[in-house]
Amino acid sequence: MEVRERILKAAEELFMKFGIRSVTMDEIASELGISKKTIYLHFEDKDSIVHEVATQRMICEQVECEEIYEKAANPIDEVCREIEMLKTHAAALNPVVIYDLKKYYPKTWQLFQQHKQTVFLEITKRNLKEGVEQGLYRREINIDILSKLRMEEIDFAFDQSVFPLEKFNQYDVHKTFIDHFLRGIITDKGLEIYQKYIDKTQV
Fold first, then answer.
1. CA max distance for the chain
2. Partners of residue 137 on adjacent β-strands
3. Backbone torsions φ then ψ of 47, nearest 5 degrees
4. 52-106: per-residue pLDDT in tens?
5. For burial by CB atoms within 10 Å, which of 83, 101, 130, 163 has the most?
6. What is the pLDDT of residues 6-31, one digit of tens each?
7. What does residue 202 show for φ and ψ, rounded to 5 degrees?
8. Which of 157, 57, 72, 198 is nearest to 123 (CA)?
9. Contact 191, 131 (CB under 8 A)
10. What pLDDT digit, counting tens, does each position of 153-167 carry?
11. How would DSSP label each residue in 5-46?
12. Residue 122: C-alpha distances to residues 117, 144, 173 (Å)
């Protein structure tokens, strides 16, 4: 693994565990057993590391979503697979990361919002459209409005002023939102499929 990749990997692990703002360049260097000077040979500053880590993370999650789409038997199966993916991601992510991005790294936060409102929005729209076509979601739902609602739920779930980490499990919050969202749009046919997933995960 090249030095640049090692720096990004170590930084991401530290950010995910402790949040972004609290992690220093010295700590990243110490984690890797290299000098801070070596890091500056590859990155201009901490902001550039944060931006690159976030960019790579968004690309990876997009690839994961497309892989799920290819494997899923239907739109509800796709959502259920995404719930399982979320279990892994939520366990590794300190919600402080989202707070830090929003408050201290506006350029990267803007990138995240843009990615969410384009790539992930289209993935959600596709799921809703195909769900309606397959009779799994109610035909009268407004796809444009609901897809935007789903995007806003993501930010809301990470809001520490509403769901503080000491009181709420991050995965439970996201999963509850998705469950609530699905139950509001699925047909009886869709509910049968979704209930099978619930039964299987509760065993």
1. 61
2. 186
3. -55, -40
4. 999 999 999 999 999 999 999 999 999 999 999 988 887 777 778 888 999 999 9
5. 101
6. 999 999 999 998 999 999 999 999 99
7. -95, -5
8. 72
9. no
10. 988 988 888 998 889
11. HHHHHHHHHHHHHH-STT--HHHHHHHHTS-HHHHHHH-SSH
12. 8, 10, 23
User: Minimal CA–CA distance to 17: which of 6, 1, 31?
Assistant: 31
- Torsion sign, CA atoms 104, 110, 111, 116: positive
Does residue 35 register a pLDDT over 90?
yes
User: How does pLDDT run across 165-178, given as a tens digit for each residue?
Assistant: 889 988 899 999 99
Tokens of 139: 């035909």
| CB atoms near residue 147 (< 10 Å) | 21
The structure tokens 């509760």 sit at: 202
Domains of the chain, by residue range, sit at 60-201
Q: Is 138 helix (H, G, I), strand (E, B) or coil?
A: coil
Instruction: Report whether 75 contacts 134 (CB < 8 A).
Output: yes
DSSP 136: S
What is the rounded distance in angstroms from the CA atom of residue 4 to the CA atom of residue 43?
A: 8
Provide the whole-model pTM: 0.90
- Of 1.10.3470, 1.20.1070, 1.10.357, 1.10.1130, which CATH number belongs to 60-201? 1.10.357
185 vs 143: CA distance, rounded Å: 10
Pairwise CA distance, residues 195 & 188, whole Å: 10
